[in-house]
């Protein structure tokens, strides 16, 4: 029952990346905003995988 709880840091890291990247993508100048946008994309992927693996811990096996 508690096997999926080890994936909670993925969700937290993903939400943190989204929370930093969204305002930074609008605040930073041209070449640096691409990195912030990529951080948002990575954050969405981390959050989605964290939620998936928390609910279904053996999904990729």
Outline of the structure:
The protein is an all-alpha fold and 61 residues long.
Instruction: Tell me the strand percentage band.
Output: under 5%
- DSSP strand tally: 0
Q: Radius of gyration, rounded?
A: 14 Å
Number of helical segments? 2
**What's the helix-strand series?**
HH
Described by strand count, sense and barrel closure, the largest sheet is:
none
Structural class: mainly alpha
Report helical residue fraction. Answer: over 70%
How many structural domains can be distinguished in the coordinates? Answer: 1
Quick check: average pLDDT? 95
Distance between the termini: 17 Å
Q: What form results from the Cα inertia axes? A: elongated
